[in-house]
Fold this protein.
Amino acid sequence: MSSPASTPTRAGRWAALLTLALTACGAPSPEDGAAEDVVSTQQSELATTRVRLMAANISSGNNQSYDPGHGTRIFQGTKPDVVMIQEFNYGSNSAADIRTFVNTAFGSNFYYYRETGAQIPNGVISRYPILEAGEWTDSQVSNRDFAWARIDIPGPKDLWVVSVHLLTSGSGVRNTEANQLVNYIKGKVPAGDYLSIGGDFNSDSRSEALFSTFSSLVSTASPYPADKNGNTNTNASRGKPYDHVLVSSNLRAYQTATVIGGSSFAGGLVVDTRVYSPLSEISPAQSGDSGSTNMQHMAIIKDFLVPSDTVSAAVTVTSPNGGESWTVGSAQAITWTASGVTNVKLEYTLNGSTWTTLTSSTAASTGRYAWTVPSTATTTARVRVSDAANSATTDTSDGAFALTTSSGGGTGSARLILNEVLANEAGSDVNGEFIEIVNTGGSAADLSGYTLSDATSVRHTFASGTSLAAGKAIVVFGGASGIGSTPNAVAATTGQLNLSNSGDTVTLKSAAGATVDTVTYSSSLAGTDGVSFNRGPDITGTGYVLHTSLSSAASSAGTKADGSAF
């Protein structure tokens, strides 16, 4: 709700409301390590902020959840600001697991609300503070309700969003749900604020009665979001318009083209990775993500340039932000967020002190710049993004990132990957937990000082002089008694790996602290006693599967999945 002139400014309200209202809605707290980046600010008159809204029923796999990672990569590649999300399940659905998902897919500075007690819950995820949130009963269905949130976007108006997942039963039932929702909204949302109703409508056509019902609150008119081929349909077979982002007329007036990299979509974007080109614009999304097993629908994006009488100008680097390992000469993307800034200047350093300009001025609203990584290997690279008109408004990568001569990290032309992990040891002897690292590069890797961590802390540090030959593997066990006859194996220096069966993150870092490889897994990969999870296909795969899907063996520490030697 807008603040009258006699009340505190919106910026002042943020601090007052965060503790009272947001922690319960999944807001990051100081304990989460999500302190805001420190950036220089200035007051800028008549500024605008690009706000990207997404409707997303893009869970996949067998459990209507985001565990498999296909939807996560789509979120990472398209960078929405506010998401009306359906089937909001991940891991065990504990607060810690949901927070982990939000951190991975969006960032630790994002807020969220997830409805309670639902089999396939609706929710809201937001870059901007959620001032209040809740759920309204959907009388037509028992396993989810309507999730709503009031969001403090930049400018004088609040944004109210409602995440919906209407029934497939028939158009009449869906219109009953729509009428119910309209009544809820009219009783809660101030007429002058912005409103968006988004999600999975399961609508067979755009002529269904529900659109007429919703039109009393939001615009249902064309143009409609479309994919690279102009297809506006969003169900799995791309034959029906199931998913929508509908907004109030006062917000629709500020809709702008959705711009990603060098591509522009006048009416918004239907995200189908199978037809998107060039795919590098939405990296790390992969071409098969939208066609993965049981992928529900295609996500929908609309962008808006929201005006603000007075805002703080700010820029924040989002990638590379420290810990990345990029191959020299490869095509990567520098990304950032900006408010109150028209154009930005981009620079990079390879040694932490000498800066090279990539561009002296590019549109801040794009939030993305295609960069061919320099050919010099280093572990001290950073990028800097500044307001092209005021160098005092600037932000630099939080930490150094590495440029290596082969993808995936390592030293020289070595390439180190996490190939196999046994988190759920056979029986209850945690010494049997293990992590297998393979050097798929062309020369030996010096592992001196490299570390293995779980989500909590470092569990193993490789001794000075440890070397891993090209094409070979080394295995780290929780304890010495777990090694048995495994070739080239060591025990964790802390006496434990502490891998959780309900989901965890394993990270290999170089001696300089750069992330070489990392994997976040859920209980679906660690729920079977004695069965590891492994890259699938073995060594070359980009995802992980249960070892039993690769061979009859439950695990293969120190050997290839088929039991043959490295």
Remarks:
- Confidence is low (pLDDT under 50) at residues 1-25, 27-46, 407-412.
- The first helix runs from residue 10 to 22.
